[in-house]
Design brief:
Length: about 325
């Protein structure tokens, strides 16, 4: 190898790189000169044939040229990539761009977030638990006896019906099981809400669905009364459905609260529907047996619990008359929210 070969080879390589019309031609030029079997690589390998005293200067020169060629290759690649990305036809770059369509939160998610936001204003935190539950957390700890209709297979989806009676697994029928899990983990005071999906053996119609969203709340402390419950319920529903909402409590029965109440509400929207009152939730003071089941002293602690369906609130808020619309995934319906 002679040193005077380096410059002509460099110029030839630069010319070929510059003349490349597309990325494929540029890659071929790179292979021809800088590839494993390229001309410049071969020149580098022939350094051993030079006299010992000429090798340092030749090696330095070759490395400088190689650096120049790699810089030229990178520059030309950027030019060709930009060229490839340019429109093939004439384009008016002064036209406004096309905005990428953004998705929206499902209306049930929007309502859930609104409910959570209201409760956070008054010091509640969100708690979560498994959707596949056991009978202890879903029924026994909540003072629901074994012969209660809610435990019948006509009402509950059991996923481990062949197991022991006390260990059968099921799809939770309410998020009250989250309340039990929280009370088992920590001492009072407690102020939580538990939103989530629940499952019941309902036939789908305008007001029922086998799968629906529920939110339950629990407040445990010293000296907690029905007055605290009523004040909280009124605050929450006025925040969600407007200041004109009126709330009333009706005596009811739940195995896990005593006394127990159904909550009805009235508003201009309800009256437009031809009704004076509409049932919206259930609530009550936590039953002393429930406290004993989780290791709380009912002589020291009192508390209240409530629960309502998120779909019901969404249907009232948006004037929707069929719960199935939330689950049909019809874009024409969902885009309205």
């Amino acid at each position: 190898m002679a040193l005077d070969q380096i410059e002509p080879l460099k110029q030839a390589a630069l010319a070929e790189l510059t003349a490349a019309e597309d990325l494929k031609a540029l890659e071929q030029a790179k292979v021809n000169y800088l590839g494993a079997h390229g001309k410049f690589t071969a020149l580098l390998k022939s350094l051993g044939a030079l006299p010992k005293e000429d090798r340092p200067a030749a090696g330095k020169l070759i490395n400088q040229v190689k650096t120049e060629l790699e810089a030229a290759l990178s520059s030309r690649r950027e030019e060709l990539e930009l060229k490839a990305a340019m429109p093939k036809e004439a384009t008016d770059f002064t036209l406004p761009g096309r905005r990428r369509a953004l998705g929206k939160l499902h209306p049930l998610t929007q309502v859930t977030e609104d409910i959570v936001r209201v409760f956070r204003k008054i010091g509640f935190v969100v708690a979560d638990g498994p959707e596949i539950e056991d009978e202890w957390h879903c029924f026994d700890a909540l003072n629901t006896p074994a012969d209660h209709p809610a435990r019948d297979t006509q009402d509950t989806f059991y996923v481990d019906a062949a197991g022991e009676e006390t260990s059968r697994q099921l799809l939770r029928t309410h998020t009250s099981s989250v309340q039990i899990r929280v009370m088992e983990r920590q001492p009072p005071p407690i102020r939580i809400i538990a939103p989530g999906r629940v499952y019941r053996r309902d036939n789908a119609d305008a007001t029922h669905n086998p799968t629906f969203q529920q939110i339950e709340g629990l407040y445990v402390g010293k000296g907690v009364t029905v007055g605290d419950l009523k004040g909280t319920v009124e605050f929450v529903f006025k925040q969600l459905l407007g200041d004109e909402v009126t709330i009333r409590f009706r005596p009811h029965y739940f195995s896990y609260t005593e006394p127990s109440f159904e909550i009805d509400f009235s508003s201009p929207l309800v009256r437009k529907m031809g009704k004076d009152w509409l049932e919206i939730a259930g609530c009550g003071m936590v039953h002393p047996q429930v406290f004993e089941n989780v290791g709380y002293d009912p002589e020291v602690w009192t508390g209240w619990a409530f629960g309502f369906g998120i779909e019901r609130v969404a249907m009232i808020r948006y004037g929707i008359n069929d719960i199935r619309l939330f689950y049909e995934n019809d874009v024409r319906f969902l885009e309205q929210f």
